[in-house]
Amino acid sequence: AWFMVMIALGISARTIIPEGTGEDHVLLKLVESIMPAEGYMLLLVVLVSIVMSSLDSLLNAGAVAFAEDTVKPFVKLTDRTALNIGRCATLVIAAIAAAGALVVPSIIDGLLICYTIWAPAILPALIIGLWVKRPRPLAGILSMAVGTLVAIMFQFIFPSAIEAPAIIPALVSALLAYLLGHWLAPPLGGAGLEKIKSGA
C-alpha cells in the first residue's frame, strides 16, 4: 500500500510541480501546490518529528550495539562504564552522520551509498549462515570485512575502475571470502552453538 501511495504521488507530481525540481523536494513542492499554508506547515512539523524520532532510535541502537557487541565481549565492563561508552559512541556516530549528510548530494544518493556498503557486508554472511548447519565464525567475519572494504574501495577510491556498480564486485568478493573462511576454519561445535544462542 505504501509503494502504491508513493507511485500515485509521483505520477501526480509530474503534472503539477515544475520540471527540474530536486528529487528531495518533490513531496514538499507537491503539498505546497495543492494544500493551504496551514497544511504545508503541518506536514513540515510531521516530517521533522519523524526524522527526529528515527534519528534518536538509530543513534541509541548504534551506541548499544557498539558497547554490547563490540566492546563488551573483549573487555569486562560495569554498567556505568558501558553507559559512558554508549554515550561517547552516540556522539561519534552523530558526528559521522552529520559529516556524511553534508557530503551526500541527496537523500536518495545517500541511501544508495548505504545499501551499496551494507548489502555486501551483511547479506552473504546472513543468508549462508542461516542455511549452513555448522557455521564457521571466521567465514562470517571475513565476508563482512572483505565486502565492506571492496564496496568502499570501488565506491569512493576507484569509482571509475569498473563499469559495473560497486555493489556487484563487493557481493562477489564477500561471497568468495565467506567460502574461503568456511574452508579454512574448523566447524563450530554444539557447545559453541549453544554459547552463541545463550549470548555468553
Written overview of the protein:
With 200 residues, the chain is mostly helical. It has a domain at 106-200. The protein has helices at residues 2-16, 26-34, 37-71, 79-103, 107-131, 137-157, 167-184, 190-198. α3 crosses α4, α5 (107-131) packs antiparallel against α6 (137-157) and α6 (137-157) runs antiparallel to α7. The mean pLDDT is 86. Keywords: Membrane, Transmembrane, Transmembrane helix, Transport. Belongs to the sodium:solute symporter (SSF) (TC 2.A.21) family. It is found in: Membrane.
Judged by helices, strands and strand pairing, the structural class is mainly alpha
Unreliable sequence segments: none
Beta-strand proportion:
under 5%
For the sheet with most strands, the description reads: none
Q: What coarse outline follows from CA principal-axis ratios?
A: globular
Strand and helix order: HHHHHHHH
- What do the pLDDT scores average to? 86
* Total E-strand runs: 0
Keywords: Membrane, Transmembrane, Transmembrane helix, Transport
Membrane topology: Multi-pass membrane protein
InterPro entries: Na/Glc_symporter_sf, Na/solute_symporter, Sodium:Solute_Symporter
Subcellular location: Membrane
Task: Map the helices and strands.
Blueprint: H1 2-16, H2 26-34, H3 37-71, H4 79-103, H5 107-131, H6 137-157, H7 167-184, H8 190-198
Helix pairs in contact: 1-2, 3-4, 5-6, 5-7, 6-7
GO molecular function, one term: transmembrane transporter activity
Main location: membrane
Subcellular location: Membrane
